[in-house]
Specification:
Number of domains: 2
CATH class of the largest domain: Alpha Beta
Structural class: alpha+beta
Strand content: 25-35%
Shape: globular
Order of helices and strands: EHEEHEEHEHEEEHHEH
Radius of gyration: 19 Å
CATH architecture of the largest domain: 2-Layer Sandwich
Helix content: 25-40%
Distance between the termini: 30 Å
CATH topology of the largest domain: Alpha-Beta Plaits
Length: 283
């Protein structure tokens, strides 16, 4: 049997995990998946993740890739692997891909959502996946501030002290806030959603952005001052880091068509976005 490369799409609730990447003496998504695959295939198995989500962060569109000589059909990986996984980690799909594919290095970008819940009465169901924030926020001002994030910038002001990236320059495709239904539980409530997509992200960058943009929404920081924070290149200039539980890795882009489709979708929603996304570098 020839060696194959498989790509799996994974959903998980991040509350029980110390991030995606394997950690010594701490539960991680990567370790849990590798242990499940090793049980399924009867031999040790290593995987690559598309995004190294932090502790407590959720995913609806995490991708993993791995090499295998197994002849199991892709559907069997979905059904069989789930048997060895906990209920907070689900395999959504599996497919065989080109041998050159790598979940991390083949990525063209990522989409994250962050949810803020303003409703006290809905906290029981929403607290695990959102930040309870009852104060009224000025969303138009927050979106004006988000316009400064679009494009290529140095995001040093929004990287954590433990970030190991060699540089902080990233390109954001779009960023902004809107109001969406709370979720699939029949809740009669709306939540505030922050959406951001870019070629790559720094450690705790999205959560640092949310914490600082909330200060804009409260009027504690003006739109112009937010632009100064971005330009400062100093984490001390930015606001606090928002809680991990509100952040979701929504999707990883692997084709140019899909990347452009998502950018156009959020542009139509009125979010600040790149003027000409077709000029983005391709892989």
């Amino acid at each position: 049997m020839n060696q194959r490369v498989l790509r799996l799409v994974v959903h998980y609730l991040g509350g029980a995990y110390h991030g995606f990447q394997s950690q010594p003496a701490a539960a991680s998504v990567q370790q849990t998946l590798e242990e499940g695959l090793s049980e399924l295939l009867g031999q040790p198995q290593r995987i690559h993740g598309g995004s190294r989500t932090d502790a407590g962060v959720h995913a609806r569109g995490q991708c993993i890739s791995f090499k295998t000589f197994s002849a199991l059909p892709c559907a069997a990986f979905v059904r069989g692997l789930q048997h060895f996984l906990p209920d907070d980690l689900r395999i959504v799909s599996a497919e065989e891909v080109d041998p050159s594919f790598h979940a991390r290095w083949s990525s063209l970008g990522k989409l994250y959502h962050y949810l803020l819940n303003p409703h006290e009465t809905q906290r029981l169901l929403l607290d695990p996946v959102s930040w309870f924030y009852p104060d009224r926020l000025d969303l138009p001002a927050m979106n004006q501030a988000c316009a400064f994030l679009v494009g290529k910038h140095d995001f040093s002001s929004f990287r954590s002290s433990g970030c190991g990236s060699k540089h902080a320059v990233r390109t954001m495709y779009f960023a902004g806030f809107d109001v969406v239904p709370a979720g699939p539980w029949g809740i009669n409530a709306m939540v505030v959603r922050f959406s951001i997509a870019g070629d790559a992200f720094l450690k705790q960058m999205v959560r640092s952005l949310v914490g600082t943009l909330v200060e804009v929404g409260l009027g504690a920081l003006s739109v112009e001052q937010f632009a100064e924070v971005l330009a400062a290149g100093d984490r001390c200039a930015a606001g606090k880091t928002a809680p991990a539980r509100g952040l979701v890795l929504e999707e990883i882009f692997y084709t140019e068509e899909r990347r452009l489709e998502v950018i156009e979708h959020f542009r139509r929603l009125g979010l600040p976005a790149l003027a000409d996304p077709t000029a983005l570098p391709r892989r």
